[in-house]
Amino acid sequence: MAAKLMIMPSGRSRYLKDNNMKIIFYSLIVVAVFMVISNYYMFSFMHAMKQVLMIVLALIATRETEILYYSMYFDTDRGQAKELITKSYPLMTALIYVLLIPIGTPLWLVVVGAVLATFLGKLMFGGFHHMVFHSSLVGVLFVTLGWTGLATSADLINSFDSFILELLFDNDFFNVTLGLGNVFDPGSSLSALKALTEGTPYNFIDVFLGLTPGIIGNGVVLVLVFAFLLFKKAINWILPSVLLVTFFITALVVGLINGDDFMFPLYQLFSGSLLFVVIFITTDPITTPIPTSAKIVYGVIAGALAVFIRIGGTYEEGIIFAVLFMSMLTPLLNVEMKPKVKDKIPKKAVNTEKAGA
Questions:
Q1: Over the stretch 208-233, which tens digit does the pLDDT of each residue have?
Q2: d(C-alpha 357, C-alpha 344), whole Å
Q3: Do residues 32 and 95 make contact, with C-beta atoms less than 8 angstroms apart?
Q4: What is the pLDDT of residue 3?
Q5: CA atoms within 13 A on the CB side of 270
Q6: Which of 75, 216, 228, 333 is 20 to 30 A from 344, comparing alpha carbons?
């Protein structure tokens, strides 16, 4: 039975289309490129190279973990194992995961998180088509909560990989001659969400353009990507739209109660990983509900919950916990809100009854 689960799709798999997954993957690459450029502008060339290395290592780690697992589990060679993972989309897991962790995360921890995301978030449940929680979020949670002192900001901690990066790129040639902006000090800069919490928000235009520190700071890029994916019909619009509207209204109400102005919900909307998670995770048909009514319930609860966790909790990326919580309820929502099919009486049976009468 376990072997079948590894290679057989689930009932939700019929909502997956290879062409759509390719469009989403290429969109992720676009976001990753802008992340590299923005880190170059905000911090240094060294940080841009660090982001590139993080992406490359995460891609290798997730793919090789699946190949190794499938080859050992099915006692097959590497070539056959590669064929088994074509519908598992390990590269998408890697990109989503690595863009959701701080750029200051040591490279060895990036690899550990990628392996944990793949094994504990995907393979342990029977593969991509049987995930309960999005595998990338599992990796993010392990990295950011399991090693809180190592994955917190853009500052490169004292580690061997950081030493190599500084040796190669921390010099006048890269910092001055090839310097692009060097706007922020990675050791003392606050994320957009942290600055908002402390009452010293960045300029909104900078936040909207994604030119402020923090996880996924490409506001306008993500808006354009979202519009493009909707235009190409690569994702379903209902859940993300309901979630974003609910988030905005909840943030507006909470902000007015706390005495904040009307810009507060906009800052919340474009800060942190909210847009990224909504676009690339809440549109996944495997870990989110299928019925329309269930999508609406998911979006309303997750949107409101994300605001409350952000404002009332100690973990600023509340959307991650909100999505993980709702993913746990997704099987229940799929069952309870499944459209009722009315029993139809065949015409022959009706005619027979009339004749008998």
A1: 988 888 777 678 899 999 999 999 99
A2: 20
A3: yes
A4: 43
A5: 23
A6: 333
Answer whether residue 4 shows pLDDT above 50. Answer: no
Closest C-alpha among 350, 207, 253, 290 to residue 10: 290
C-alpha dist (Å) from residue 7 to 72, 118, 141: 14, 15, 27
Neighbours of 168 (CB within 10 A): 11
Domain boundaries, the chain: 44-153+155-187, 189-337
**Nearest CA among 170, 205, 218 for reference residue 37:** 218
Nearest to 283, CA basis, from 336, 246, 348, 229: 229
The token duo for 284 is 């996944």
What does the alpha-carbon distance between residue 16 and residue 340 come to, in Å, rounded to a whole number? 23
Handedness of CA 56, 61, 62, 67 (dihedral sign): positive
213 contacts 190 by C-beta, under 8 angstroms = yes
Q: Render 58-94 in DSSP notation, one character per residue.
A: HHHHHHHHHHHHHHHHTT--HHHHHHHTTTT-HHHHH
Q: How many residues does the chain have?
A: 357
Whole-structure pTM value: 0.88
Q: What is the DSSP string of 273-332?
A: THHHHHHHTTT-TTTS--SHHHHHHHHHHHHHHHHHHHHHSS-S-HHHHHHHHHHHHHHH
**Closest to 60 (Cα-Cα) out of 52, 72, 71:** 52
DSSP 191: P
Tokens representing 148 are 């809180």
What would the two tokens of residue 302 be? 């997750």
Q: pLDDT tens digits for 251-306?
A: 999 999 988 888 999 999 998 889 999 999 999 988 999 999 999 999 999 999 99
Q: Which two tokens stand for residue 221?
A: 């890029």
